[in-house]
Amino acid sequence: MDLTPLLPQVRDDVSQGLVLLKGVRLVLCLGSRAQVALLMGTPARILGAATTAAEGLALVRQHQPSLLLVSDRLEEGCGVDLVVQAKRRHPEVRTLLVVSQEHQPALIQAALRAGCDAIVPESRLLHGSGLQALHTVIGGGMYLDRSLAGVFRADQEPGAGHERLSARERQVLDRVVRGLSNPEIAGELMVSVDTVKTHVRNVLLKLRVSGRIQAVVTGLRLGLVDWPRPGSTR
């Protein structure tokens, strides 16, 4: 594939990405040594870099980064397993997973169940999705690329087995999917933060999930909310 037409966008994305990464404490765990070398050459604050799952987990434990950037394919081990272990032991660490095995939905769903904050297909990195994912996850939101929609196709009718959400609860869930925080949701809907918290709690109860990430996955899978439009996360 001739990527020459994408060069202006890529340069702009890289420039914006470096601005976003300013002050972010970053650990890399990527299967490609070339990718690691390229990122190590940027002014980003990289605390450690590895190419195996065991080394990546050790770096997370040692440095307690604010962001872990990991690929699903590593020289040894699996990036999804690394995300699962990192989130289990250090849930405060934000995680961005780059997947090359898009045809394996079980891996992607395992990462989501573990609480992965952003998932981007490798094939979409040069089409703006990488920057959008970085912007969302650093801002505290959750990012799932639209090309992963097939992962959430349900075998059941929307809403089957779950209590129906009210119109306001759907509005709140829609904004959770877009990566907005409770204060931002309150501002958009012109209600108090406490009211938003109540709606979020009710959504979790009705969808029978334990957290916002699981609510996003379930809402998308059941068709209760739409995928965010490109650029609409903020």
Automatic annotation (TrEMBL):
Annotated Gene3D superfamilies: 3.40.50.2300
SUPFAM superfamilies xref list: C-terminal effector domain of the bipartite response regulators, CheY-like
Annotated InterPro entries: CheY-like_superfamily, Sig_transdc_resp-reg_C-effctor, Tscrpt_reg_LuxR_C
Pfam families per the UniProt record, alphabetical: GerE
SMART domains listed in its UniProt record: HTH_LUXR (SM00421)
All residue ranges annotated as the HTH luxR-type domain in the record: 158-223
Keywords tagged on the record: DNA-binding, Transcription, Transcription regulation
PANTHER family: DNA-BINDING TRANSCRIPTIONAL ACTIVATOR DEVR_DOSR
Full protein name: Response regulator transcription factor
